[in-house]
């Protein structure tokens, strides 16, 4: 019998602006290097999903955010672990200095893009994000 896989809870933001969605590219030295995903990250012990998502967007892109409605949850089994990925609608809100969606910084990501849903297939996404995206777009019955 195989050992149970370690489960990692991850939250990600679906941020839409003028018909485009925010996606980020993982760093070259990360697990699943240079693949694209919705911005977010691991939920740390003692954090709510909202707290984790706001922290991750600040650490990765240097912006404050407001977490909105739950969208979906996807469970994906990788070779050595399982990811429980939950998507939330999010908005980037201006901080005290007035910085907002136009002022993103690639702090803890390799790159970011604003893309339409029709452009998603031009980017190689992580398997969990791809499954979530398919749910979001109604491509499959998952």
From TrEMBL:
One GO molecular-function entry: 8-oxo-7,8-dihydrodeoxyguanosine triphosphate pyrophosphatase activity
EC number: 3.6.1.55
Keyword Metal-binding set for record: yes
InterPro entries cross-referenced by the UniProt entry: MutT-like (IPR047127), MutY_C (IPR029119), Nudix_hydrolase (IPR020476), NUDIX_hydrolase-like_dom_sf (IPR015797), NUDIX_hydrolase_dom (IPR000086)
Enzyme class: hydrolase
Biological-process GO terms, alphabetical: DNA repair; DNA replication
Catalysed reactions listed for this entry: 8-oxo-dGTP + H2O = 8-oxo-dGMP + diphosphate + H(+); 8-oxo-GTP + H2O = 8-oxo-GMP + diphosphate + H(+)
Highest taxon in the source lineage: Bacteria
Stored CDD domains: NUDIX_MutT_NudA_like
Record key words, sorted: DNA damage, DNA repair, DNA replication, Hydrolase, Magnesium, Metal-binding, Mutator protein
Cofactor(s) this protein requires: Mg(2+)
DNA repair is among the record's keywords: yes
PROSITE patterns: NUDIX
Domain Nudix hydrolase per the UniProt entry, residue ranges: 6-141
Family: Belongs to the Nudix hydrolase family.
Name assigned to this protein: 8-oxo-dGTP diphosphatase
Organism: Sandaracinus amylolyticus
Lineage: Bacteria, Pseudomonadati, Myxococcota, Polyangia, Polyangiales
